[in-house]
Write a structure and sequence with these properties.
Elements (H helix, E strand, L loop, with lengths): L2 E5 L4 H12 L3 E6 L10 E5 L5 H14 L5 E4 L5 E2 L7 H21 L1 H7 L2 E5 L12 H20 L7 E6 L11 E2 L12 H13 L8 E4 L6
Parallel strand pairs: 1-2, 1-4, 2-3, 4-6, 5-8, 6-7, 7-9
Helix pairs in contact: 1-6, 2-3, 3-5
The chain binds NADP nicotinamide-adenine-dinucleotide phosphate (NAP).
């Protein structure tokens, strides 16, 4: 049975992915800051706050002790902090970078020897906010830019292994990220966003490709709002 680790599996893209991988017969290890909502014998959930280093370390120990034979990691958990450039809150900056970048770097880095050994694949979720300039989103985009660079470095480090590394860079899709946004109170029309299951299907497709094929970068446009 193949095993996938999905961060942020309580909502939005991570939840959709977890359900889809379960349907495909995978064992799924999920985490979020809230309790898990999936009930399935092939699903295990850890309530982990990725902004707290001690909890990130607990999760890494859990994987090493109980699920060291994973095949795929999807670094999906994320939060949106919006602010005017002249009004950053340092706590929110630290929290957003901790969740969007540092936790993914630490988990992937500590599991790196196992990734090499297992030939495990990695998919990192960035954002199309990186493709333009959106001043209120600068903190979020900067965190995703760091994740992009980390993804490139990972890809290079794993060049001669069976592991493949993908940056998955989507435009807006329906999820709870805007409702949970910290900082400014911005609105968007969720009806104009892509369907989350359609986006998850693309990730599922990529992950099932033969190991001879690697997709280092994939960008998904929202045709309704481009
Ligand atoms: N939706 C979009 O339009 C869009 C576009 C481009 C990229 N993305 C990216 O897609 C990814 C998934 O986001 P989504 O849109 O599906 O958002 P979402 O519905 O808000 O889901 C985010 C997930 O991350 C988890 N998470 C957030 N903070 C956490 C923390 N401190 N510790 C542990 N888990 C935490 C959430 O769990 P809890 O809330 O339960 O903690 C939730 O499971 C993110 O990386 C996001 O940046 C989204």
């Amino acid at each position: 049975m193949k095993k996938v680790i999905i961060t942020g599996s309580s909502s939005g893209l991570g939840l959709s992915l977890a359900k889809k991988f379960l349907d495909e017969g995978y064992f799924v290890i999920g985490l979020s800051n809230s309790e898990g909502i999936i009930v399935n014998l092939s699903y295990v959930h850890r309530k982990i706050n990725l902004a707290l280093p001690a909890e990130v370390n607990n999760f890494i120990s859990f994987i090493k002790q109980e699920h060291d034979n994973f095949d795929l990691i999807i670094n999906n958990a994320g939060m949106l902090y919006t602010a005017d450039i002249s009004n950053y809150d340092i706590e929110n900056l630290i929290e957003s970078f901790s969740i969007n970048v540092f936790s993914h770097m630490k988990i992937t880095g500590d599991l790196f020897p196992l990734i090499e050994k297992n030939g495990a694949d990695i998919i990192n979720i960035t954002s199309s906010s990186l493709e333009g300039t959106y001043p209120s989103f600068l903190a979020y985009s900067a965190s995703k830019a760091a994740l992009r660079q980390f993804t490139k470095e990972l890809n290079s480090s794993l060049k001669d292994t069976n592991s493949r590394v993908t940056e998955f860079c989507p435009a807006g899709f329906q999820s709870n990220i805007w409702k949970k946004m910290k900082g400014l109170s911005l609105e968007r029309d969720e009806n104009k966003r892509m369907n989350v299951d359609d986006v998850a299907n693309i990730i599922l497709f990529i992950s099932k490709l033969t190991k001879d094929i690697e997709i280092p970068f994939i960008k998904i446009n929202n045709k309704k709002d481009r």
